[in-house]
Amino acid sequence: MGERVLVTGASGFVGSAVARALAARGDEVSVLMRESSPRTNIADIDCRIVIGDMRDAASMTKALDGARFVFHVAADYRLWARDPDEIVRNNLQGARIVMEAARTTGAERIVYTSSVAALKPVAGAAVDETSRHSEQTVIGAYKKSKLVAERLVERMAGEGLPVVIVSPSTPIGPRDVKPTPTGRIIVQAATGGMPAFVDTGLNLVHVDDVAEGHLLALEKGRIGENYILGGEDVRLKEMLGIIAPLVGRRPPRVQLPRGPLYPLAYGAEAMARFTGKEPFLTADALKMSKHHMFFSSAKAKRELGFVARPFVRGIEDALNWFRQAGYIR
Question: Which DSSP category does 7 fall into?
Fold first, then answer.
């Protein structure tokens, strides 16, 4: 029998991929889920479900009892909320409680899933783990939440907690149930819902490679260090140009300036405050799109032996899964 491992966030996109990879190598996997969390992504994984919440210390300590290794993947991954501070509170409190519970129960090693959201992009360059945001420079509640949580985990590593940090870039691929903001772009592009685009860029990586990177971080990562788990830097125009022929469509040709889109974003946010549904466009998203979110995984390749398949495989796998799951008609 393999090791006893707990994964938080296993109902989600990255968390379920991590749980799947651990089960595939024979580990005894427990997954922490809220009562209300969907079970779709773990239906075919050999794992034990533990009901609890990352923000509840008692349930976390109970869930972690007997676990040798911990993967804290769970996060409040919303780019918009009626109360933006709620996202910051959830992710900071979740990180603190999970790390403290892991220390209390004597977990041998912890992998904490941060995000490249906490790193500062630089024009025309792929940045590494040393390009750090501050609370003053970071844009939006989600990015701020990942930044403050990452700093907390770093401090706890400095105090002796055996934790390694990984920062996935933009995962794509199968089982994006929610879907993520990038998954929504893929679905929209495939169904003709993106007739135009803004000039931006992102780093795309297959979700199963991100999961493999988590396992490598557990085995080879240095305590307190951060490893970017990324794939390839891609402009949005190029990404849409790849999706279009795969679904028998023409790629969009119209590039929109950002300025005129701000009133649209403010309107969408005002409507969202009324309906409670996440807006299709936000002012923060427009501000972020000014930056090409390009990242280097050289450190993870060098120290962990991390490798990522071509990002096109991720797009193909995502499209196939979205088709089968009925997102694309």
Answer: E
